[in-house]
Structure formats: structure tokens, C-alpha cells
Amino acid sequence: MADFAKSLTAKLARRGIAASEFCNLSNAVERRIVKEYGAVFLNADAEVEMPDRCCFKNESEVAAFQATLKISKRTIGGCTIELQRAAMNALLKAADAVDAITPKGACPARRSFADVQISWNETVEAATDYWRENPNAEGITLSAEEAENLASLAGERQIKLIFELEEQNFLFHPDRARSIAVYTAIPGASQHLLMLALDIEEYANEKVRGALAENGWFQTVFRDRPHFTYLGVKEKDLPSLGLKSERFEDREFWLPDI
Ligand SMILES: [Zn+2]
């Protein structure tokens, strides 16, 4: 298996981007972003555009990036979705090979910075309320001081604190058993902002997953079952990009090996 960080550095260099400017792997939050969602940055389709940073800071950065893209818009199963054109073409080929691929949820493909931030805030607030009332595995509830501190912070400082609390078994996923990162993306870091991801209804259908994989769409966010990512490569080539396969239930996820 290739080394993920080396593979990413080489890929960025071909796009004229210095890896040190794209992402700081010694920053805990940025490292987490790359670990959780970073497979998308290895997209091998020459038609696909990539950002020059691993995390957008605000709406205007997202809008500026999305304005550079060749976007394709389709209505599938009554839902209009927008993806980078190469990703849409591959999706339509996969859909042709099976009975149906149906977008799932309110924002199944393209998202804005605000879409991701709103979902993050709601998840954080609900988890904070829950852990104020309910003890974690160690029998401890979240103190009023910690809850206030969390509410007062924004951006990277808040994200960092959440990951620290998760290490103390205050898990922010709504099932209270997993990390917030696999439920809602870190603001600015969702693969949906890149327009290379789609959430689908038929994620449990092996034939659908097979048709998607045949056309370069894979599951790259661990245990996020409806979520697929366009990588634009054959499955056999994924290890040579520095992605490792990890099984959950009866399916494989392709994750950055860092
Ligand atoms: Zn998704």
C-alpha cells in the first residue's frame, strides 16, 4: 500500500499546490479532517477540480471554489442534485446499470458552508444538553462550566474541545456511541462542499454499491452508510493511492491510511 501523505503531496504538487499550505497535519483538527474525509483529495479524474485547502473558513471561500467548477444538475427521484460534471456522469452510468439510485435527505449532494455549520451546531447543542443530563461510561455528566465553555467557543477552538470531550467518552453523535465527525462534517470540511459526494437511499443494496464502485464511487467516510464519494478510479487501484480498506457490517470503506 502506498503512503497516504506522500500520495497526497504528489497529487497536490501536480495541481501546483504545496502540501504545507493545503493542510497542516500537526494541527489536531486539520489532521482529523484529513483522516475522516481526506480520501476525496486523492480523486484521480483529471476533469475534477480540487480546492487549495483542506478546510474552507467561510461561505465566501466555498462560493469562490464552487464558482470554478463545471457543474451538472439533474433531477433524480424527484430530487434535484448538483455535482461536479465528471462525478455526475459516472453516477448516471452507475444508475443505468441498476434499477435505481435515489438521493437521500434534504441536501444529498451540493452543500453550502451554512448548511454544514447549521447541522454541526444542532448536533453540538443536542449532545451538550444530553450530556448535561446523562452520565457517560464513567458515570460523569458534563459540568455546567464545560457546557458554557463549549457554547462560548466557535470554529477551530470549539471543534478541538469537542474532540477532547469525545476522548472522555462524551460522544457527540446522536447515537452517543460514535464521534460527531461521522454524523455531520466539521464545518468547512464536508465532501459535499466539493460537490463530489452523494447520500443515497439504496446504500444497503450490494448491487448498487457494486455499480457505483465500477464507476469510481466509493464509501470513504467510515460508518457513514448513505454517503458515497467520487474518486474516479478502479477499486483495485485504491491501495496504490494510500487508502486502506476497513469493513463495517457487510461493506468496505476506503480510508486514508494515516
Ligand atoms: Zn454525505
Task: Kindly describe this structure.
By secondary structure, the chain is of the alpha+beta class. The protein folds into 2 domains: 4-111 and 190-256, Muramoyl-pentapeptide Carboxypeptidase, domain 2 (2-Layer Sandwich); 113-182, no CATH class. 38% of the residues lie in helices and 13% in strands. The chain has 9 helices and 7 strands. The chain has helices spanning 4-14, 19-22, 28-37, 59-66, 85-97, 113-133, 144-152, 155-167, 206-214, and strands at 71-76, 79-84, 197-199, 217-218, 227-230, 243-248, 251-256. It has a 3-stranded antiparallel β-sheet with strand order 3-5-4. A two-stranded antiparallel ribbon has the order 1-2. A two-stranded antiparallel ribbon has the order 6-7. β4 (217-218) and β5 form a beta hairpin. The longest helix has 21 residues, at 113-133. The radius of gyration is 18 Å and the shape is globular. The mean pLDDT is 94. The site of zinc ion (ZN) has 4 residues, from β3.
Summarize the main sheet. 3 strands, antiparallel
Number of domains: 2
Portion of residues within helices: 25-40%
Number of extended strands: 7
- What do the pLDDT scores average to? 94
Task: Give the cofactors and ligands.
Answer: zinc ion
Give, in order, the helices and strands: HHHHEEHHHHEHEEEE
Itemize the secondary structure elements and their pairings.
Blueprint: H1 4-14, H2 19-22, H3 28-37, H4 59-66, E1 71-76, E2 79-84, H5 85-97, H6 113-133, H7 144-152, H8 155-167, E3 197-199, H9 206-214, E4 217-218, E5 227-230, E6 243-248, E7 251-256
Antiparallel strand pairs: 1-2, 3-5, 4-5, 6-7
Helix pairs in contact: 5-9, 6-7
This protein binds zinc ion.
Organism: uncultured Pyrinomonadaceae bacterium
Protein name: Peptidase M15B domain-containing protein
